[in-house]
């Protein structure tokens, strides 16, 4: 399909009450927009052909100057707990939704002020836009539920952050843009009828099979708990630190949303905090499972007009008792090439986390190297600072492997498909940004390619598969974007 044939629906606008659920608004175009990158993979989701990148309408679509048929630009209203404190009204301050096609909702991020911009400018800088564009694609190809990104434009529009920067727009796609904070908005403003309408909308959008079910609100909550547990377990297993897990950045569809000061772990550090404005480490890597739980309790509270508290609490207790842990164990067993569930696996994995923390080793490189382990320990000793710690854990792992039926070769093959060779580390993204700020977008393209092939051997990109250069390890990132 060509861009001019794109036809959008706007189901969110059937929720009546402009100013409560959403506000109709117009994108404010950027000056001298230029295409930075186009992602044919995401284009396919909405039925566009790869040739769309040659179409001048593409830049216009991203800049908001071409509205597809049926598009009705609107910003969504939501609230949320930011760093533990309730903020009664947030909303899409710099994102404008156009409508949806094939169940994918198109959103322009950075397209100017909306009713919810508060004191800010409604813009996104090129730096943070490139980060979100590439990382969301990388997460998708790692099998982690996420929003997607169709393309990105840069511009000559200048915006002030810590310094003057150029503004950009990313066209994001999501199956849903409803956040925990969307429910919170209607709960704290005591608009319970609207709260119920939102629940019905979410069921239609994300849990269609529950439509008409007598117990649908509880089942919806239950599904959100399960998918959030699974998603969080995937973040932990891949070594992803989101950085700003406020309730407004939690999706009811259980996907990763709103990429800000995130990081893929360099050397493993359980207490790692990628967001350097997070001084107390509320959103540290190791805290994410607890924070997801806390965020779910906030969602449960917002749903009290619809579901008795005891029922949501019971489900939350299950998250704490086994739902999260089971999801995490499944992920980690896969990474370790273990097919069977054995007693003692919890300890094996807890010991590994402790050993990785102590031994000083690149998280991704460790698992990729372990994927080729056949009893020969040298390759692993070569990549850690403290081989003794590693040796101790490998002895436990050796004993555990004896209980498996797979051969070394079979296990290795499975592990090479579960442990990526390439993840997008912050230093790589930074290289692409530095070049892009000079007008060279070639590295963005290269990283988009790497992002799409995380498990493959790519000899030309070998340099990005190793340890992070010492000077670039664990760079702190600010929320400014
Ligand atoms: P975030 O943590 O980036 O997801 O953003 C938190 C809230 O601040 C959301 O409501 C955003 O829409 C809003 N926001 C962030 N940056 C801007 C900006 N430059 N202009 C307007 N609103 C913004
Ligand atoms: Mg956000």
Task: Characterise the protein shown here.
The protein has 481 residues and is an alpha+beta fold. 40% of the residues lie in helices and 12% in strands. The chain has three domains: 3-174, no CATH class; 187-256 and 274-322, no CATH class; 337-472, no CATH class. The strands form four sheets. Strands 2, 6, 7, 8, 9, 10 and 11 form a seven-stranded antiparallel beta sheet that branches. A hairpin with a 2-residue loop joins strand 4 (80-82) and strand 5. Helix 3 (126-141) crosses helix 14. It is globular. The model has no long low-confidence stretch (mean pLDDT 97). It binds adenosine monophosphate and magnesium ion. Adenosine monophosphate binds at residues 90-94, 117, 120-123, 244, 249, 258, 260.
Helix-strand sequence: EEHHEEEEEEHEEEHHHEEHHHHHHHHH
Bound molecules: adenosine monophosphate, magnesium ion
Classify the helix fraction into a percent range: 40-55%
Rounded mean pLDDT score:
97
Number of domains: 3
Distance between the termini: 34 Å
Q: Assess the beta-strand content as a share of residues.
A: 5-15%
Which short descriptors sum up this protein?
15 helices; 40% helix; binds magnesium ion
Layout of SSEs?
Elements: E1 22-24, E2 34-38, H1 40-45, H2 57-63, E3 74-76, E4 80-82, E5 85-87, E6 95-101, E7 104-109, E8 124-125, H3 126-141, E9 148-154, E10 158-160, E11 164-174, H4 180-188, H5 192-206, H6 216-238, E12 240-241, E13 263-264, H7 288-302, H8 309-336, H9 345-359, H10 363-370, H11 378-381, H12 387-401, H13 408-418, H14 426-436, H15 442-452
Antiparallel strand pairs: 1-3, 2-9, 4-5, 6-7, 7-11, 8-11, 9-11, 10-11, 12-13
Helix pairs in contact: 3-14, 3-15, 4-5, 4-7, 6-7, 6-8, 7-8, 9-12, 14-15
